[in-house]
Structure formats: C-alpha cells, structure tokens
Amino acid sequence: MLRPFVPALLSLLIAAPLFAGQAERQPLFDFVSPDEAVQLATHNAALPAPAAEVTAQGEALRRLTFAAGEVASVRLAPQAGSWDWSQASAMSLRLQNAMDWALTLDVKIESADGRALVSRIALPAGPAQELLVPLQARSPRQQGMRAAPPMPWEHGGQRILLATQVGGQLERSRVVAVTLSLDHPQAPQSLLLGQFGVRAGSDLQQAGYAGLVDGYGQFSRGQWPGKVDNDAQLREAAAAERIQLQGWLAGRPRQDRYGGLLDGPSFVASGFFRTEKRDGRWFLVTPEGHPFYSLGVNALSAAQSATYVEGREAMFADLPAAGSALAGWYGSDDSRRGTGASRDLGFAHGRWFDFYRANLQRSYAGPHCRSAAPTGAEDCSVFDARRWTTHTLDRLQAWGFNTIGNWSDAALVEARRVPYTLPLLISGDYAVVSTGLDLWGGMPDPFDPRFAAAAERAVQVASRGHRDDPWLIGYFADNELAWVGSGDPLRARYALALGTLRLGPESPAKRAFVEQLRGQYASARQLAEAWGIALADWGALEGAGFQAPLPQEGRPAIAEDLQRFQRLYADRYFRTVAAALEAQAPNHLLLGGRFAGTTPEAVASCAQYCDVLSFNFYTREPQHGYDFAMLRALDKPLLVTEFHFGSRDRGPFWGGMQEVWVEEQRGPAYAHYLERALAEPSIVGLHWFQYLDQPVTGRLLDGENGHLGLVAITDRPWQGFVEAVRQANLAVTARLLGH
C-alpha cells in the first residue's frame, strides 16, 4: 500500500544534500516506528503485524513476509521528488533473516534518469546486522581478487553485511526508489527490518577488506580444523604426515616403474607412452606395455602462490618486515596483460609476497637469501627444495596419483619418479582473431606463416631435454583457446567465423575465409542470395567491419558456411602443431587442446590430428561437460585435464568452478566423478586442478582465490579430503583390474 504525503517533513529531507553538517549515519525511515516520510509499497509481500517483535538479542524489529510464488518485493521511495544522496557512500538497512536458512536478497537502487544499481546479497541466518550497499559499482576484482570475503563480519562491536558485488550506475543526487526482493520464493520467507537510511564515508567499506590475511597466509576471520597458529604446529604436522605417507606408500598396488598395472592386461612395449583400444575401452599404455589410467594433479609447484601486497597492505595483518627472516619471499611482477582474465582487475602489479614458500621455510629450514644478495651479506640457508620435491612426489604416489600435470615444477619432472605431461605454449608476433572471449588472448591465426614458425619454436623449447624421455606421456597444444565467444549462445557458437569476417584484408584468416567462399559461390550475388543479405561485390566482403548474419531458419547456407570455415581454421591449427611435433618429438603423444569452450568443428579436427582429446570439465561428472554421443562417434581416447570441487569454509573465498557447500562434500564429489569417468570407455585419465589452495587475496595471474587444493597455503594437506581422494584413486585400480 502507499502511505500519504506529509509536506513539512518531506521538505526537510529534500531541501539540501544529506550529511550537511550531520552525523555519518542519516536515517530516513524506521520500520519499527514508521512515519509518513517514505512511500512503502509491497508486491506479493506484507507487514503482517502492526507492532515490532523483539529478537533473541533484545532488539525490536518489524517482520516483513514475502509470499511464495512470483517475485516478492517491498519498495521504498520519497513521498515526492527524489533523495539527494550525493554526499553519501552507501545505503544502510538494519535487518535480520527470520528464517533458519540463508536467503538471497536482491537490492535495486534507482535514480530519476532511469539508471540503477543492483546487488544480490547472501543473507545468512543469525542475528541482525547493518546491510551496507555502496552507491557505486563495486566488485572484488577491483580489490584484486575473484571472490570477496564472506559477510557479515564483526567490526567495532557491530555486525556488518557489506554488499561486495554491486553493478550498474546511479545518479546519486536524484535517487527515487530502493527495492528489496526475493526471486520466486518457493515458500513464505520473512525478514525483520529496522532503520533504513544512508551512510557517509568509506571507512566501513575499507574495513570490510582490512586485516583479511594472517601471517601464515590464512583467512584471519575464520576458524576450521587444521588452521595454523604457530610454527611448531607446522613442524609437528609435517612429522606426523611423514609417518602416514610411509604406511600408504607401502600399500600401493603392484605397478611397473611408470605406474602401469602389472596385474592388468599386457600390451606391446614400445619404449614410450602410447594409446590402444582393446575390448571397447581405450587405454594409455606405459613404455613397458602395461595399462595406465592417468590420475594427475595440475600446478604442482612451490612458486605459484604469491599474491600482490603493494597498495593493499592493509589487507594483511602480519607481513614480514624488511630484513626479517622471511623478507626474502617478497618480489615484484606485472600481470596487466590486456587479456580477458586480467580485465578490470585491481592491484595487478607491483610488490608481492609468497606465503606458501614462507611457510615452507618455517617448516623446513632457516632464513632465505636471494642469490643477488650484496657482497658481504651474512650467510643464510634456503629451505631444502629437494626435500619439498621428494615430499611432494611421496604425497602424489601415496595418495594414488601417477601423473604430474600441467604447470608443474621442473624439479618434479627431473626426479624421474612419476610420468608427466608438458604444455606447448605457442607465442609470437603472428596475427590473431578475437572471438570476444579472449580469456588468455586472441585466437592464433594459423593461416599466418608466422604461426607455423612459432609452433616449431614452441616444440623446440618444450622438448629440450625431453625428446627421448620415456617418462613423458605427451604434450598439450596450448590451453583453453577461445574457440567460442561469450554471451548469446548462437553468436558465441560462431564467434570465430564472425570475428574473422569483421577483420580487414590484411588478416590471413580473413583472406582464407574469402577464398573459401569464392570457391563455394560463383559470384558475390549468389552468396548474397544464400545468406539473404545485400552484397554488391566481393570487395564489400573483403573490407574490414563486415557484419555477417547469424544462422537462421530458411537460410541453412549461413550455418553451413560458418561451420565449414571453423573446421578449416581448426584443421590448419591442429595440423600445424601436429606437424611440428612429429618433426621434432615424434616419440610422444599430442594430447589435444585442453578445451574449455569449444565447437564441434574444433573437437573433430583435434580428433583427426591429435592422439588424445583433452577437455577441462568443471562439472559434477564428465558426461555433463560435452556431448559424449559425438565424442564416442569420434572414437578417440579422452583425457579430462582439469576438474575440481571447492568450498568456501576453509579460508579462500571462492568455491571454484564446481562448488560444494562444505569441505566434507569434496571427497564424495571427487569419488563420484571418478566413478562416472570409469563408466566412459574413452576416458583414459583425469587431472585435478590444483595441488595448492590459491591465495586468499588472489593469485598474480588473474586474482583467482579458491579453496581448490589438496594442500593448504600452510603446506598442510586437507586430511579428510586426501583420505577420500586416496580411496577413490585406489578404487580406480581395482575397477580396471576387474575386482
């Protein structure tokens, strides 16, 4: 319902900007003692009782109930005109979730010019708090991280819930409405509401990110089993783990030196890893001729856990002082590379600190000194990197893994204890094509002769020292190339072809596409008729900025032509890489392109030119990642090169690409994934991403900050999870042996 207008009070509210000589907090309306200053309108919601109720904490708040069914909302607006919030920094609302479960509350703040800010708030069950919604767009990426710290938090004796993700724009001097809503609640849901208003100053917004990280790189505001409080705990945990690992290593199944199953079927030994299909199932085969199901881990490295500290030192409660024992783990970098992954990322350059290696130093040895220490500096010891290598390989084998995945430390490879894979990182000054996604950069233009030269260089560099190594399974062709775009599914599906046509005649890919169309159509007029467009001549197609039509019913030629070019593009790419590998490293497998988003044309081409298809499947089970009917028809072995399950209850704020609710669900999710993979005869292995949790405040590359690891930033394994992983990995062996 709408409340009546009281002119005298309204004039006080809109005559001048808020906070002109007033306190930091400016109340506008109180649900407990409502006045006529604000219009209150509800939709599919009601204030069922005229009086407030007292919470368990003794606070008086008024109940608002959202009915089940359609979107339910309450809208607050000035009786006339607009609010001038130009001096305010955040909307403020005292509220409590009256349910025993979390709610998702949508907040919309509108201005008179039609613009609005929107935020989706995770509102936990529990005591009341002050909700603060900043009056301009906000994102954790601005703070250098993918996900924001959990809310609410205690600050100055108050419980504060800061909206960390706010999108849109607002004219703060003319705010006309604030709407709170629930999206199609399945049952009635209630909030308890108090004072509504605005706040000036950014102190609380800054405080929301202050002191997040303790001296061990852990989230400072949380508690969980295994959290480290002192150095002695690190050393004690490491000693206990060594005893556990010895027992687990002694109980490994019978294997050849490469991890092949001695009790499985026998194959011809070739001296290198290869593939073979037998009785309807694909296998990787070890150099000694035994079946090998690749269970790997990505990013096995001690040097990928640094996080930027420059400019955001306030986020860290205990950074080492200059000249202190751990000060050697500072460094500097610049991650501003213009890729989609780093776009809009704040704090992406400057000084960083590596908490993981600092914790290794605490566990393994004394102070660290860089090799560039000035002459005459005191001698100091570095943590024993060989011990880390041995310990990490012991963990892998004890936990049932048998493969060193991508992005891993060279020292692990050089130990020649566990088979490994390597990336072909093709880079150069060749032309590129943008699909609009460009997560790691534009698509390499394989029609550019410089691409072939770059591929040859990449193989030469990657194979140096590995050309005749039987421990090497094979090479990956790049990683997560942008075969598709983003946004509208149809436009994303054909983004590579559409992006090519927008380029000018200087683009080798554009020239190849035009040549293909000229071979398909006798004239530009014939192409125009097939596509249903106006096209005066071939020159109109060849110029920059050509906008091709999207596929549509009644115009099958559009989809056919776009698909034909995308297959031509993929063929040129994979054929070029395969030829470079065959020329320089013929003994090892080409393991595919580690597809994230892709097209049927790219997958079919990869199957033609590569020995193995590879996909990064962040799904509940592999079969949800792609059309397996198509993959079975291609009849190629398949390697799942990235998957994981994360949660948000062990420090890092992001739950990963495939999230579970709590830590205890990660192990069962892992076991289910492996079980479903074994049900697919084409799958020859799976590689977990990644070994370590990411830094709480984001990794250098792109700010990812997920609890995804087998091991914490303190180098302590997540014990319950690794026990579940080990059992699941051992079950793979038993299943393959028919037990």
Would you kindly provide a written description of the structure presented here, covering whatever features stand out?
A hairpin with a 5-residue loop joins strand 4 (53-54) and strand 5. Helix content is 26%, strand content 21%. The longest helix has 29 residues, at 556-584. Helix 13 runs parallel beside helix 14 (600-609) and helix 16 (666-678) runs parallel beside helix 17 (719-736). The protein is globular. The protein has a domain at 7-207: Galactose-binding lectin (Jelly Rolls), CATH 2.60.120. The protein has 17 helices and 31 strands. Mean pLDDT is 93; it is low at 1-23 and 370-381.
In short:
This protein is of the alpha+beta class. The protein is built from 17 helices and 31 strands.
What is the typical, i.e. mean, pLDDT? Answer: 93
What is the general shape?
A: globular
CATH architecture of the domain at 7-207: Sandwich
CATH superfamily of the domain at 7-207: Galactose-binding lectin
Please tally the β strands and state the result. 31
Largest sheet, strands/sense/barrel: 9 strands, mixed
Structure characteristics:
six-stranded antiparallel beta sheet; single chain; 739 residues; alpha+beta; disordered N terminus; nine-stranded mixed beta sheet; Jelly Rolls
Layout: helices, strands, pairs:
Blueprint: H1 7-14, E1 25-30, E2 38-43, E3 45-46, E4 53-54, E5 60-66, E6 72-78, E7 90-97, E8 103-111, E9 116-123, E10 129-134, E11 153-155, E12 158-162, E13 167-168, E14 175-182, E15 189-199, H2 203-207, H3 231-250, E16 274-278, E17 281-285, E18 291-292, E19 294-297, E20 306-308, E21 330-334, E22 349-354, H4 355-364, H5 385-398, E23 403-404, H6 410-414, E24 420-424, E25 432-433, E26 443-444, H7 449-463, E27 472-477, H8 489-493, H9 495-501, H10 508-520, H11 524-531, H12 538-542, H13 556-584, E28 589-590, H14 600-609, E29 613-616, H15 628-634, E30 638-643, H16 666-678, E31 683-688, H17 719-736
Parallel strand pairs: 10-12, 19-23, 19-31, 24-27, 27-28, 29-30, 30-31
Antiparallel strand pairs: 1-15, 2-6, 3-5, 4-5, 5-15, 6-14, 7-10, 7-15, 8-9, 8-14, 9-13, 11-12, 16-17, 17-18, 20-22, 21-22, 25-26
